[in-house]
Design brief:
The complex is a heterodimer of chains A (146) and B (387). Chain A is mainly beta. Chain A has two helices and eight strands. Chain A has one domain (14-144). Chain A has helices spanning 2-7, 22-29, and strands spanning 33-38, 44-45, 60-66, 70-79, 93-100, 107-111, 125-132, 138-144. In chain A, a hairpin with a 5-residue loop joins strand 1 (33-38) and strand 2 (44-45). With 387 residues, chain B is of the alpha/beta class. Chain B has a domain at 8-117 and 217-231: 3-Layer(aba) Sandwich (Peroxisomal Thiolase, Chain A, domain 1), CATH 3.40.47. Chain B has helices at residues 26-41, 62-69, 85-98, 126-132, 147-162, 166-180, 195-199, 228-231, 263-275, 292-301, 310-315, 332-335, 342-353; strands at residues 8-15, 50-55, 75-80, 104-112, 203-206, 208-209, 218-227, 239-249, 284-286, 368-374, 379-386. A nine-stranded mixed β-sheet of chain B has the order 3-2-4-7-1-8-11-10-9, with helices on both faces. The chains are: A mainly beta (146), B alpha/beta (387). Chains A and B meet through strand 4, strand 5 and strand 6 of A and helix 4, helix 5 and strand 5 of B.
């Protein structure tokens, strides 16, 4: 039993919730995307923070964009050696920064989980998916579509 | 032009031995480098009244180094920082002397970068990484924990926009490795690199192969800065600080969320005006080279070649001896050694002194040099040096 438990344990780093970022990760746990937005300059803010980095305003709100999230690859790296625990089982690791169709002006970084390195290129379309990594946590990821 | 242009100089440079396993502590290495810099300047330890260093929690303190050089310092400062910290501390040294708080400043970087604390070596606590890096929770869970990945994300996009290929990265590596073959103290002396070999090397993290990464070395470097007036009393030929931009930052502390700009772009806007020269006046350069691509991006930021001409610039061999701008002429951090940039400052100082005169290492008649520091896309600084 002990062995079985160990083998299914999630070994990769789990996103740390903080005062400023927890609404993003709370929404992710519900398989939804929430993004911080400035009430004054109306720009989207990602990663979230204590004030708007575009205009300095402290007036911000969170907008929930739901679960139907798409985008296109803006840049990427493909890593063949594990840089962190857990990734040794998951090589090569494709990490992509994606421009989000539903939230102009931001990019979200995640792995592309259904592709080989040779399938990846700037401009390719992707869709957000959520992996349940523990009983109560989920991690947003990207999948190639089309 | 900068008010203090050429009013301060580098008067001493020195290094410890360079290896993969020093068998000693950063403090011992720092003392050897400092004594060598003092001997180079023809100064005694008592002539130093301020000591500064930078580290990544992997070194000794300036107070320790002062103590064991036999100096009671008026002023010490140890900052946390990697690339571009030499330029930053040179700016601080000038400010300190200008404010009448010190006369002659020793700056060092000492590290067992291979046998001790390795950069991005995967030994960092992942929770610590998420907290220590601003926005770390948005990249660490995806395995993005190494500068090769942070900078690589910029590289892939920039290469796409600038029409750069793997071969163009290779030209940076091949050029600097060629320089290392003329430098018996370079780690990769005797290990030349051909383009054919480069292109056959596997990626560690696309778009970078092991040749695109800087080395890891155990080593210390030291430099001594003083006023041009006091420099006249030193043994060495002074190398004047003609232009300085000590530090510029990317607009956002989550710099990786904006791949369109790097801090070096802001340094490139100011550095030539500071020295009263143009990019085409340069004869020699030390371009911070933690990764090959970082050199290409800085060639653009420092207006040495336009974005659309970067590939052609390196393909033509312009970074090599005899090219338009011989750069990293000791081999750079890709093939000489790695002390977060300070070894590149030592080399350009020696070039501008014409210390290699009569050998194939000397950039003939060089008078003006650019030395750049790259903390990352987040921070940068630069010096223009003259003889």
């Amino acid at each position: 039993m002990t062995t079985e438990k160990t083998s299914t344990k999630y070994e990769k780093p789990i996103p740390l919730k903080t005062l400023d970022n927890h609404p993003y990760w709370d929404a992710a746990d519900n398989h939804e995307l929430a993004i911080q937005s400035c009430c004054d300059c109306q720009k989207a803010i990602h990663p979230p923070g204590p004030a708007c980095p575009h205009c300095g305003s402290p007036n911000m709100e969170w907008i929930n964009y739901g679960s139907d999230i798409t985008g296109e690859i803006y840049s990427y790296v493909t890593t063949y050696v594990p840089m962190l625990p857990g990734f040794q089982h998951d090589l090569p690791t494709i990490i992509a920064q994606v421009s989000v169709d539903q939230v102009p002006g931001i990019q979200i970084t995640a792995n592309i989980i259904n592709a080989k390195p040779e399938d990846i290129a700037i401009g390719k379309a992707v869709k957000m998916t959520w992996l349940d990594i523990t009983e109560d946590r989920a991690l947003p990821q990207w999948k190639l579509i089309g | 032009m900068w008010d203090l242009s050429s009013k301060y100089a580098i008067v001493g440079v020195g290094e410890s031995e360079r290896s993969k396993n020093s068998g000693t502590t950063p403090l011992h290495l720092a003392l050897r480098a400092s004594r060598n810099a003092l001997a180079d300047a023809g100064l005694e330890a008592k002539d130093i009244d301020a000591v500064m260093s930078y580290s990544e929690h992997d070194s000794c303190t300036s107070h320790q180094v002062s103590t064991y050089l036999g100096v009671r310092p008026k002023y010490v400062k140890d900052i946390i920082g990697g690339g571009s910290s030499t330029e930053l501390l040179i700016g601080d040294a000038i400010a300190l002397i200008e404010a009448g708080q010190a006369n002659t400043v020793l700056i060092f970087r000492a590290m067992n970068g291979r046998s001790g604390v390795r950069m991005g070596g995967g030994n960092w606590s992942t929770d610590l990484l998420q907290s220590a890096i601003d926005g770390g929770s948005f990249i660490i869970p995806y395995g993005m924990a190494s500068p090769s990945q942070w900078f690589g994300m910029f590289a892939t996009r920039h290469m796409h926009e600038a029409g750069l290929t793997q071969e163009h990265l290779g030209h940076v590596c091949v050029s600097f490795y060629e320089h290392a073959q003329r430098n018996p103290k370079a780690m990769l002396h005797g290990k030349p690199l051909t383009m054919e070999n480069y292109l056959q090397t596997a990626h560690l993290s696309y778009p970078f192969t092991k040749h695109d990464f800087c080395l890891e070395t155990d080593e210390a470097n030291a430099i001594i800065v003083t006023s041009a007036e006091r420099a006249k009393d030193c043994k060495s030929r002074p190398v004047y600080i003609k232009g300085l931009v000590s530090r510029e930052m990317h607009p956002h502390s989550h710099y990786w969320t904006d791949l369109t700009q790097v801090a070096a772009d802001y340094v490139g806007e100011r550095i030539y005006e500071s020295a009263g020269i143009k990019p085409e006046d340069l004869h020699v350069a030390s371009i911070y080279d933690c990764y090959s691509w970082v050199v290409l991006r800085q060639l653009e930021a420092y207006k040495i070649a336009p974005r659309e001409g970067l590939g052609e610039f390196v393909t033509q061999g312009n970074l090599k001896m005899g090219g338009k701008l011989p750069s990293n002429t000791a081999g750079g951090m890709l093939s000489e050694g790695y002390t977060h940039g300070m070894n590149n400052v030592l080399e350009i100082t020696r070039q501008l002194r014409h210390e290699y005169k009569g050998t194939e290492r000397q950039v003939e008649g060089c008078e003006l040099g650019l030395c750049t520091g790259w903390l990352g896309p987040d921070g940068a600084g630069a010096l223009i040096l003259s003889n």
